[in-house]
Amino acid sequence: MADDKNITIELQSLIDVQENPFVLIDANYQIVAANQAYSMAYGLTPEQSVGRLCHEVSHHSDVPCHKNGEHCPHQQVFATGQPCQAVHVHFDQMNRPERVRLKGYPIRSADGTLYLGETVFPLDCSEGVDCEEMRMIGRSPAFLNCVDNLTSAAESEASVLLYGESGVGKELAAQYVHKRSSRNGKAFLAVDCAAITESLFESELFGHERGAFTGCIGRKQGLFELADRGTLFLDEIGEVPLAMQAKLLRVLETGEFRRVGGRELLKADVRIVSATNRNLLEMVDMGRFRLDLYYRISGIDINLPPLRERQSDIPALAETILSRNVGAGMRYRLTAEAITLLQAYSYPGNIRELRNILLKAAALSANGIIGPEHILLKEFNVVPKDKLLTDAVSYTREGEASPSMTQVEAQYIADLLVQHNGHRRTVADILGISERTLYRKLNLYQLS
């Protein structure tokens, strides 16, 4: 319904035939026309929508979204006259948040008046996709941009390579891509490439026949066979042994493979989503990763933001973690001081570390109220591997010769093990390496 002399019956008719929510907004953020889908999405009639401010309807905010730090299509269209896209969090008629992709277009009336035409595409309400259950939670610009990239990747059949630090939720992101893709309903299988020994890697991926090796008593289907027509998530792809990379490349190029010890040529239609916290191109330069395999798996590159870049999401993440990971019968609430403390921390272990901190805090709280005294943060300096040599002086006593690189690394790892009570996963996360690589270093330096 329109309420502006410049909005013709013909233009209103074009608005009404839009299947997605569509709204026409003037330079003062006022809605001058809306279709039925837009009004229903926000619990209004078309007549009630017209005359309202757009940010009041969709954001439940008294100020335009750009004043809250969001990328504003209204601001860009009226400033440049060019179309634009953005991902926002809107609130439906039940005041529930949902992520939406906005596409804004400049539209002029017969007398030349400029309007913003805005189409709303929900990102969270697709059938079969429950993002809340997957803990894909957040409203920060960095996170919303990431969700938009994941949604676009899901619409393609290209391989996806996820970059991100340990603990940012790479498997959840891979599941999001799978569930929004045409392969939803088929198998989604995940494998941690760092957790498989080199001798068993081929058998794990391609399966084996009975008697293929010592102790093999039966046939086993591999992950490629089991994931046929679905998605295979290869976590820590940088840990794939160099000898296996050629075989992995072949199956990705042809879809063909043989079980270990078998002669039958098998085929599988599998979409690959990979993840790493390494710089694969640097590994290529060092001769530790094949360039042709890199190009095969990196059809679409997506960076997952670390938690320190989305601190505004911490309260919502914390609330969700506490509601789903504590015992029944007790509801937990964070005080404002506790939230402030959580938002000030850098989280080298990202969401995984936030979860551990909150579960410890819940165990320490007797009445369900979590204050700053219950938040136990381990303050330590994260020293990247490539800076260990630079920091060698910190391990050198006065009058002693500077230690070698291996001595510095061994001492640094030993200190971390003591500081974190021997928890190898935590130490590996801090070092930015896999647990398997850490085990090798422990054996090399004879550390326990």
TrEMBL record:
Which residue ranges does the record assign to the Sigma-54 factor interaction domain?
A: 136-363
Keyword annotations of the record: ATP-binding, Nucleotide-binding, Transcription, Transcription regulation
One MF term in the entry's GO annotations: ATP binding
Q: Which InterPro entries match?
A: AAA+_ATPase (IPR003593), AAA_lid_NorR (IPR058031), Homeodomain-like_sf (IPR009057), HTH_Fis (IPR002197), P-loop_NTPase (IPR027417), PAS (IPR000014), PAS-like_dom_sf (IPR035965), PAS_4 (IPR013656)
Q: Which Gene3D superfamilies match?
A: 1.10.8.60, Homeodomain-like, P-loop containing nucleotide triphosphate hydrolases, PAS domain
Q: Which biological process terms from the Gene Ontology are attached to this UniProt entry?
A: regulation of DNA-templated transcription
What residue stretches are annotated with the PAS domain?
A: 7-52
Q: Which PANTHER family match?
A: SIGMA L-DEPENDENT TRANSCRIPTIONAL REGULATOR YPLP-RELATED (PTHR32071:SF119), TRANSCRIPTIONAL REGULATORY PROTEIN (PTHR32071)
The protein's name? Fis family sigma54 specific transcriptional regulator
- This protein's species is Sulfurirhabdus autotrophica
